[in-house]
């Protein structure tokens, strides 16, 4: 669909239209915003996340100058089908979705589980990805990734007992800087009021956890083959995907850039969105 002169470009994720595309027997829910044309930036979301889990303070600055696409994985939110039990199968779905939209070259912005999926996609389809942003994530076979399951269940319990959002525990430090940053983040996720996504189902969530466990226990990929410019970012105290794994990625991906934010956790890029968003925009625009 081409933009006519009188059709304003939407650069606010809160107002991005919900769309669907069907491929391989699955209907994928997605949202798009920003000016059309050129190489799109496709956003790969985290564990248990739907389209409503992207921080508008990260997406909106990128969408000012770039065509941005966020999508629901198979079996999650607005997408039909069953959640796959492996990261590699999730990457196959991502490939199906991207090619169904007619793209043969994309930039990738990924967070957490989305970063696992992005790596699996690049390993299998190196020609598809021009640039790679890996945040709050780690490599296949990364030490202690399989402990995500226990950490996640523990924090869901803590959140339930305090009637808060589990992400406040999982993504942020429970200290004087972390707590307000967590609340601000959760509030930003509610800026979209119309046409919100369906939350992930428990069975789908459990299947994702299984896939993460499998990824953590698998033989590492040879990341030295990656030639894409890569930006890696995390907080210095990631309880979900240990921060040291970001350093591991940086060591293994040639010429990659690494940013570790102080006094922050898994959601370091969201806590430091004012610093990080311009860096991401500059990196993707280079």
TrEMBL record:
Residues 41-270 form the AB hydrolase-1 domain. GO terms for molecular function: catalytic activity. InterPro entries: AB_hydrolase, AB_hydrolase_1, AB_hydrolase_fold. Gene3D superfamilies: alpha/beta hydrolase (3.40.50.1820). It comes from the Bacteria. PANTHER family: AB HYDROLASE-1 DOMAIN-CONTAINING PROTEIN, HYDROLASE, ALPHA/BETA FOLD FAMILY PROTEIN. This is Pimeloyl-ACP methyl ester carboxylesterase. It comes from Kribbella caucasensis.
């Amino acid at each position: 669909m081409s933009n006519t002169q009188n059709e304003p470009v939407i650069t606010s994720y809160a107002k991005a239209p919900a769309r669907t595309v069907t491929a391989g027997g699955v209907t994928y829910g997605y949202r798009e915003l920003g000016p059309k044309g050129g190489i799109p930036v496709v956003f790969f979301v985290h564990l248990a996340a739907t389209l409503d889990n992207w921080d508008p303070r990260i997406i909106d600055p990128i969408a000012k100058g770039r065509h941005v696409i966020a999508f629901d994985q198979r079996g999650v939110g607005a997408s039909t089908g069953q959640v796959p039990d492996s990261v590699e199968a999730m990457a196959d779905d991502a490939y199906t979705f991207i090619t169904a939209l007619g793209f043969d070259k994309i930039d990738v912005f990924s967070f957490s589980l989305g970063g696992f999926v992005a790596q699996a996609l690049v390993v299998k389809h190196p020609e598809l990805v021009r640039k790679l942003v890996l945040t709050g994530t780690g490599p296949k076979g990364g030490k202690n990734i399989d402990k995500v399951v226990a950490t996640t269940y523990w924090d869901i319990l803590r959140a339930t007992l305090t009637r808060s959002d589990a992400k406040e525990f999982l993504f942020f430090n429970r200290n004087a800087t972390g707590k307000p940053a967590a609340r601000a983040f959760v509030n930003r996720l509610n800026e979209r009021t119309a046409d919100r996504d369906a939350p992930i189902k428990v069975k789908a969530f459990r299947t994702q956890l299984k896939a993460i466990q499998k990824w953590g226990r698998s033989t590492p990929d040879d990341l030295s083959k990656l030639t894409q410019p890569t930006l890696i970012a995390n907080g210095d105290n990631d309880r979900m995907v240990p921060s040291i794994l970001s350093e591991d990625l940086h060591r293994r991906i040639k010429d990659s850039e690494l940013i570790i934010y102080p006094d922050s956790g898994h959601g370091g890029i969201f806590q430091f969105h004012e610093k990080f968003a311009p860096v991401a925009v500059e990196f993707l625009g280079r």
